[in-house]
Amino acid sequence: MLLVPPQPSPLFTGNSFSDGSFRRLFRRSKVNSSSRLVAPTVAREVDDFTKYSGYVFELNKAEEDSLTEYNITKIAAFYQKKPLIVLRRLVQIGSTLGKWFAVRYMDTVNERADEMFKIRAAELRKILLQLGPAYVKIAQAISSRPDLIPPSYLDELSLLQDRITPFSSEVAFQIIEKELGMPIDVMFSEISPEPVAAASLGQVYQARLRSSGEVVAVKVQRPGVQSAISLDILILRYLAGLIRKAGRFNTDLQAVVDEWASSLFREMDYKQEARNGVRFRQLYGAIKDVVVPEMHMAETTQKVLTMQWLEGQKLAGVKDLYLVEVGVYCSFNQLLEYGFYHADPHPGNLLRTYDGKLAYLDFGMMGEFKQEYRDGFIEACLHLVNRDYSALAKDFVTLGLIPPTSDKAAVTEALTGVFRNAVDKGVRNVSFGDLLGDLGFTMYKFKFQIPSYFSLVIRSLAVLEGIAVGINPEYKVLGSTYPWIARKVLTDSSPKLKASLRALLYKDGQFRIDRLESLFSESLRAKTERTLIEKQNGGTDSKVVIKQILSFTLDAKGAFVREILLEEFAKGMDALGVATLNSVTSAVATRLQFSPSRPSSMTDEDITNLRNLQRLLLLISGLREDKNPSMVNGVSTSNEQMISLNGAPVSLQQFEAVLEFLPLLSVLPELPQDMQQQLLRLPADFAGKLASRVAARTLKRVFL
Predict the structure, then answer these.
(1) Own/partner pairs for 593-596, CB < 8 Å, 24+ apart?
(2) Which distant-in-sequence residues (6+ apart) come within 8 Å of 531 by Cβ?
(3) Among 241-250, 545-554, 635-644, which stretch is predicted with the lowest mean pLDDT?
(4) 3-class secondary-structure state, position 296
(5) Exposure letters 303-320 (e unless 16+ CB within 10 A, then b)
(6) Using one digit for the tens of pLDDT, what is the confidence trace for 449-463?
(7) Where are the beta strands (DSSP E) in 166-310?
(8) At CA 251, angle to CA 248 and CA 253, rounded to 5?
(9) Under a CB-based contact definition with an 8 Å cutoff, are residues 244 and 230 in contact?
(10) Residue 622, Cβ neighbours under 10 Å: how many?
């Protein structure tokens, strides 16, 4: 909402205003026998909302006050007493939208659809402006998806984000004085005579606080928005009920409308928006290169909001891949770390400041994502990426997307069909929008529901991907978010996520190292440093990778994964000891001309553990083994060959490649002191696990 022209230029003339020069911007008039400052008379066309829908908000103060909170029962009772207004509104909506669709149909019939495309897009934008904020809000969400709507419509609907015709400044200044309870020149030493930006719910002025001299943004609520939105929500909710019955939808469409309406009403309470901004700043303001404006609570009321002034350009209008990644990281924190998220991140609310930072604006529409749902969402992403569709079906029950009584086997089969092709392309190529589209038929068949809480989450992610697609058509928000999900799963202390990680890495007691490799590999893509992001596609220095992996595993948050690694290293070293002993015994027997035979002490489990050890060493060394685990020097090896190749000890055959990377252990002195101390404790922990493993093997041989 808060946007300034591309070039930073002062909106005030001169450094400061004296009382006299300030007053020269205004004329005096008598209102209720009191002297006040009002904006100068400017010949300007009345905004379309007031012109065409002004009858909707012709209410007295008592009636306005009764519509300050979203309560559908009260709203229905209120408009039951005003049937003529309801009827007039229905006729207006039906006639304007109906006429537009009819004209579009005739364009198609007359084969003029392409020729009239741009004209019809402009007409639709004007119709939405006439109908008011509720319809503008819907259009704003659509305009954030350039991959879903034609460019002509995108251009027109994008104008609804912050370039709506403003209402009278005289009215706006009267609202400021009434809400703040003092003359405008007592509060501000300067204020722009006209708004610098106008949106669906309000418009913004630049001003300077007289008390501190700070430049601030003053947002004033558009008159009549509460009554107009109340009536439109009542109508939309009724239509949602009809559509659900006619289409036999499983989702409670009225509940979805209620969730959206509740967020709209919260957005119209500017004191609540200021509190949201304060909380958002506390949670995310410290993230590198993220800027959240400071709220001025003393100068804020339900209809007037005063905040720190920020300047910049729309994020969607600049090609800054780094800030897109910063936005993804911030969104990850919002949705999956703290659960308090910006539910209206359209391009008008995201700026690139002139010093290259990402600024968040407009905190009216916020959402809460409960911990149980956050964990469920993370697990669903993990199971999707790892193609565990049976577990994904259970996740959908946890998230409330399908009823607990659904046939899990049938749902699993359906999800496999829906997601297999998308996931086979790799997590970096999975489009969130495409996944939602592919789910359509399955959702209907298995009575999927969209819980009311989830509608805002979906909208937030879809809008974020839409903004990113506008910068980079190949961008995938899930692919960019998954590295942070992988890192969280590897480091989170939540018992539920720890259990999920162990279930992901082990099946029937067997360690699935490929999944750990995948999690490590993806977690290393989670970068917020500008230089790292710019070099992301060009590869990463192996020394940097080793340092990242060691820092990750030695950190206090990596304790759970560190225990798993130590356990698997102990298994591998135990198997390596057996393999080396077998090789030496075989070599001695051959030299003494004994008849060699295959050692019986090397089990299939030992061979698997040996392979895992090799891959773990490569992983910790900053390498990703791309060869088949049964490939040694490019030659396929059977289990028997894995024990000894050409008579040489298996330890030398399998691990000679690792020796090439031992010099990179020079990164150890660069680690923080606490991590170096943790590294010194590892040998003792490892020795304990290895001793237990060897003792168990010895007892097994003696007694079994």
Answers:
(1) none
(2) none
(3) 635-644
(4) coil
(5) bbbbbbbbbbbbbbeeeb
(6) 667 677 667 777 777
(7) 188-191, 197-198, 202-209, 215-221, 290-291, 304-308
(8) 90
(9) no
(10) 21
- Residue 20, pLDDT above cutoff 90: no
- Chain center to CA of 251: 23
Q: Name the 3-class secondary structure at 518.
A: helix
Cα separations in angstroms, 654 against 43, 84, 510, 617, 646: 84, 85, 21, 11, 13
Catalytic annotation, residues: 344
Q: What is the DSSP string of 447-461?
A: T----HHHHHHHHHH
Task: State pLDDT tens for residues 194-232.
Answer: 999 888 889 999 999 999 999 999 999 988 888 889 999
Question: Which burial class, exposed, middle or buried, applies to 159 when counting CB atoms under 10 A from its CB (0-12, 13-18, 19+)?
Answer: middle
Q: Which residues pair with 360 in a beta bridge?
A: 350
**Strand pairing partners for 342?**
366
| Alpha carbon distance 127, 105 (integer Å) | 17
Alpha-carbon gap, residue 132 to 572, rounded angstroms: 68
Cα–Cα distance for residue pair 478/378, rounded to 1 Å: 11
Q: What is the mean pLDDT of residues 378-400?
A: 84
Are 158 and 134 in contact by the 8 Å Cβ rule? The answer is: no
Residue type, position 560, single letter: F
Amino acid 507 reads K
Q: Whats the size of the chain, residue-wise?
A: 704
Report the run of H or E that residue 36 belongs to, with start and end: strand 34-38
| Residue 29 parent element (H or E) | strand 27-31
Token readout for 584 is: 């030496």
Distance from the first to the final alpha carbon of the chain: 75
- What is the spatial distance between Cα 558 and Cα 542, in angstroms, rounded to a whole number? 21
> 406 CB contacts (<8 Å, ≥6 apart)?
393, 397, 446, 447
Report which DSSP code applies to 333.
I
- Per DSSP, helices labelled H in 302-354 are 321-332
Specify the pairing of strand 358-360 against strand 290-291: parallel
Structure tokens at 498: 């720890």
Residue 559 sits at φ, ψ, to 5 deg, of: -60, -40
Q: How far apart are CA 121 and CA 103, in angstroms?
A: 12
Please state, as a whole number, how many other Cβ atoms lie within 10 Å of the Cβ of residue 142: 16
Evaluate whether 128 touches 137 at the Cβ level (below 8 Å). Answer: no
- Kind of pairing between the strands at 215-221 and 304-308: antiparallel
- The residues, ordered by sequence, that sit 6+ positions from 488 with a Cβ below 8 Å of its Cβ are 336, 337, 378, 497
Q: Does the predicted model carry a pTM greater than 0.90?
A: no
253 three-class SS: helix
Contact 280/330 with Cβ under 8 angstroms?
A: no
Distance, in Å, from the CA atom of 455 to the CA atom of 435, rounded to the nearest integer, reads: 15
Task: Report d(CA 73, CA 519) in Å as an integer.
Answer: 49
Which of 401, 403, 396, 381 lies closest to 336 in space, CA to CA?
381
SS3 of residue 668 by DSSP: helix
Closest CA to 457 of 617, 343, 304: 343
Residue 530 has, within 13 A of its CA and on its CB side, a CA count of 8
Beta bridge partners of 215: 208
Please state, in angstroms and rounded to a whole number, the distance separating the CA atoms of residues 160 and 614: 58
pLDDT number for residue 203: 92
Cβ atoms of 331 and 464 closer than 8 Å = yes
CA distance 97 to 617: 65
Question: Could you tell me if 380 and 372 are in contact, meaning their C-beta atoms sit under 8 angstroms apart?
Answer: no
Task: For residues 562 and 553, give the distance between their C-alpha atoms in angstroms, rounded to a whole number.
Answer: 6
Q: How far apart are CA 435 and CA 456, in angstroms?
A: 17
- CB-based burial label for 71 (10 Å; 0-12, 13-18, 19+): middle
CA-to-CA distance for 550 and 527, rounded, in angstroms? 16
Compute the distance between CA of residue 346 and CA of residue 227 in angstroms, rounded to an integer. Answer: 24
Helix residue spans in 386-526 (DSSP H): 389-398, 408-424, 432-438, 440-445, 452-471, 477-491, 495-505, 513-523
